């Protein structure tokens, strides 16, 4: 269960087996059914979750009552509402499983104690946060600088397993386009092949 997570962590900083053991002891394993809400708008996010197996989405509901997807997370990814978690303030977001999912979770207090015990982990989480921020910046740039077709092709390149795991409507929401536009893009791309 911890092998992929350990590889994930040690890519950021070398860790001894005893340090990894302390880290493991602070994590709680959970197996969640499809459509489980891990976080609802108005709640304080109490966790950061590493996806061992499964698929999760993070989203908000816009003023028209439509779901706007901000993130999909699959195996070897982390998911949380970082602002709510780090500041311990109510969230504007929802986090929900799209498949039966297994996660390793750490709560706020455990993470703070872990940083005090193993300072290297603060570096690990900082590097992971920088990478996540870089991806977010890239997504914002692509949204304003690229066509919908280019956004979809980039999505397929970066996340090749997600289209087989989530409905087209949710991919369209993530891309900021209508499901009909996504259907047209897919048809156009099929004709090119």
Topology:
Elements: H1 3-10, H2 17-26, E1 28-32, E2 37-39, E3 47-53, E4 56-61, E5 67-73, E6 78-79, H3 82-87, E7 94-97, E8 101-107, H4 108-117, H5 120-145, H6 148-158, H7 168-175, H8 179-192
Antiparallel strand pairs: 1-8, 2-7, 3-6, 3-8, 4-5, 4-7
Helix pairs in contact: 7-8
Structure description:
It is a single chain. The chain is of the alpha+beta class and 193 residues long. It has a domain at 3-118: Sandwich (Jelly Rolls). It has eight helices and eight strands, in the order H-H-E-E-E-E-E-E-H-E-E-H-H-H-H-H. The chain has helices spanning 3-10, 17-26, 82-87, 108-117, 120-145, 148-158, 168-175, 179-192, and strands at residues 28-32, 37-39, 47-53, 56-61, 67-73, 78-79, 94-97, 101-107. A four-stranded antiparallel beta sheet has the order 1-8-3-6. Helix 7 crosses helix 8. The chain is globular and about 55 Å long. The mean pLDDT is 93.
Write a compact overview of the structure shown:
This protein has helices spanning 3-10, 17-26, 82-87, 108-117, 120-145, 148-158, 168-175, 179-192; strands spanning 28-32, 37-39, 47-53, 56-61, 67-73, 78-79, 94-97, 101-107. With 193 residues, it is an alpha+beta fold. Helix 7 packs across helix 8 (179-192).
């Amino acid at each position: 269960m911890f092998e992929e997570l350990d590889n994930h962590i040690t890519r950021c900083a070398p860790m001894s087996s005893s340090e990894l053991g302390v880290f493991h002891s602070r994590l709680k394993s959970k197996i969640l059914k499809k459509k489980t809400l891990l976080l609802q708008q108005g709640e304080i996010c109490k966790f950061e979750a590493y996806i061992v197996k499964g698929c999760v989405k993070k989203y908000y509901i816009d003023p028209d009552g439509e779901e706007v997807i901000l993130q999909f997370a699959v195996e070897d990814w982390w998911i949380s509402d970082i602002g709510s978690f780090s500041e311990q303030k109510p969230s504007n977001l929802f986090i929900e499983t799209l498949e039966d999912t297994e996660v390793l979770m750490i709560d706020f207090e455990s993470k703070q104690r872990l940083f005090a015990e193993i300072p290297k982990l603060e570096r690990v989480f900082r590097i992971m946060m920088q990478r996540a921020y870089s991806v977010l910046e890239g997504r914002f740039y692509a949204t304003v600088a690229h066509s919908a077709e280019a956004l979809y092709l980039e999505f397929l390149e970066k996340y090749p397993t997600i289209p087989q795991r989530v409905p087209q409507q949710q991919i369209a929401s993530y891309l900021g386009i209508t499901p009909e536009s996504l259907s047209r893009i897919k048809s156009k791309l099929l004709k090119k092949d």
